[in-house]
Amino acid sequence: MIYITQLIYIKAGKEQEFQEFENHVIPLMEKYTGKIIQRIRPTVESFVSGEENQPYEIHFLSFDSQEKLDEYLRDDSRLQYIHLKEASIQSTLLVKGTKI
């Protein structure tokens, strides 16, 4: 089992494109054993401190294996919407790990 944490930073005014991308690709995760443990859209009030800008969303995900994650990332159904991701996401901080 692998776990992924993503801090997702959106380009200004591109929230709708990001949501459209998410609406198409999140349901595909299940096909590859992917699960959303948490999907958080933090508010200004929820931040205590930090050196970086506030992310638009924070995702905590899991996949049974790296191979399943790789299959998901290569899925043709997902790739047909990749232009929405590229148009809307400024940057992503991704951390992979295991549960301890």
From TrEMBL:
Xref: Gene3D superfamilies: 3.30.70.100
Protein name: DUF1330 domain-containing protein
Organism: Reichenbachiella agariperforans
